[in-house]
Design brief:
Keywords: Signal. This protein is an alpha+beta fold. It is built from 9 helices and 17 strands.
Length: about 400
């Protein structure tokens, strides 16, 4: 995945004044502290102002050295970079009827989950590829347990840019995942149906499964009262609402085993499954824990799944998950020819060369952000990344 695709040469040579081809005295007079000042350019992915073909006239019409950089940065090479190993972040969103329950400010549970997912996609931009499925898909009152399916194929995230208005991936993701919840919770059938597509995706794939309840919709299941959803949710006036003659019938059983098995198969194929339980799922903490353990993403202590008690915090939880899988490495398609002449910027702010909280060379063609700089990137708070060569590297003091 590419960002910062513009490369410009010949503005200053290999350092701020190395390319000055006029009088030595004029060139040296330009190589002052002011001439080396780091002045960030506007957004990556935007067209930079093209440099003048010749030197700027000095006082009295005489020619002088060029500015530090006509685009605003000290250096003559804005590198073409690729996000190293951008993961496929694949949302599997519960769209069962219970997701219509009111959450806050007139919004439903599904509204809030949808909003948080869209925000994450927007904020992470090119750091991820994103796809989505909902379950069930195309459910009706007569067929409430149809398996879920893909509504948005895996697509590269939007490139870094200054503006928020041109975000095609985010816009399409928002539209594709805007559904009206209806039906049951066919989690196992959905994951089983999605598995072949997910396994074939190139690179690392991570599933984020968000649900407000326990999996069901297994018409062949039978269960005792302990595994009957109506009984679990304390809504059964009988001993067992899932008994053959009970009002819930076989479809009301908790589909624990098949769901855990479907997740385990994905994990065995190298796909991590993060389980997010939102309000409404409190009755099912034990099965959500089992699902998280099977998915290879369990937290250190129970609850092993990502429990969300307040939907206002869901965005933070999704960001935490993303921070685990997003890379802070940038591969340069055009590595600099000279050592010690490269600088990194996040949102027009210089990031010093620092092995703790800045950046380093992981290899001659890979820049890695570290510590605070990496966390800032993973949090989705970075709108543009710039890697520029042609001026001495600024180190942390």
């Amino acid at each position: 995945m590419k960002t910062a695709v513009k490369q410009r040469a010949g503005v200053c040579g290999m350092s701020c004044c190395l390319g000055a081809a006029l009088a030595l005295g004029a060139a040296l007079s330009a190589c002052t502290d002011d001439g080396l000042k780091q002045r960030p350019r506007s957004g990556v992915g935007q067209e930079a102002q093209e440099p003048d073909d010749g030197f700027n006239p000095g006082p009295g019409g005489s020619s002088g050295p060029p500015p530090v950089d006509a685009g605003g940065l000290c250096g003559n090479q804005i590198h073409q970079v690729e996000i190293a190993e951008a993961p496929n972040l694949y949302f599997v969103l519960d769209a069962s009827g219970s997701m219509l329950s009111a959450a806050s400010s007139g919004a439903t549970r599904y509204d809030r989950v949808h909003e948080a997912a869209v925000d994450l996609v927007r904020n992470l931009g090119p750091l991820i590829n994103v796809g989505a499925a909902v379950f069930p898909l195309d459910a009706t009152a007569d067929a409430p347990c149809r398996p879920g399916g893909e509504v948005f194929p895996v697509t590269p995230g939007d490139p870094f840019s200054d503006g928020q208005e041109r975000r095609p991936t985010t816009s399409r993701f928002r539209s594709a995942t805007r559904v009206v919840p209806l039906g049951g919770t066919p989690t196992a059938a959905t994951l089983t149906a999605l598995a072949p597509k997910l396994v074939e995706l190139p690179g690392k794939t991570v599933v984020v499964l968000a649900t407000d309840g326990g999996p069901n919709c297994n018409s062949s299941a039978t269960c005792s009262a302990e595994e009957c959803i109506a009984n679990i949710e304390q809504q059964c006036p009988e001993e067992n609402c899932c008994a053959p003659s009970g009002p819930s019938g076989p479809g009301g059983c908790l589909d624990r085993d098949d769901t855990v098995a479907a997740i385990a198969r994905l994990a065995a194929s190298g796909i991590d499954v993060y389980v997010v339980g939102i309000p409404g799922s409190e009755f099912y903490g034990d099965v959500l824990d089992q699902m998280a353990l099977a998915g290879g993403t369990a937290q250190f202590v129970s609850p092993f799944y990502f429990k969300v008690d307040n939907l206002d915090t869901l965005g933070n939880v999704l960001s935490r998950i993303a921070s685990i899988v997003v890379s802070c490495e940038f591969a340069l398609a055009d590595p600099p020819p000279e050592d010690g002449q490269t600088n990194v910027y996040l949102d027009e702010q210089l990031v010093p060369y620092d092995p703790e909280n800045g950046w380093r060379w992981k290899s001659p063609a890979v820049v890695e952000l570290l510590g605070e700089a990496c966390q800032k990137l993973k949090s989705g708070r970075v709108g543009q990344v710039q890697i520029v060569s042609g001026c001495p590297t600024e180190e942390a003091r």
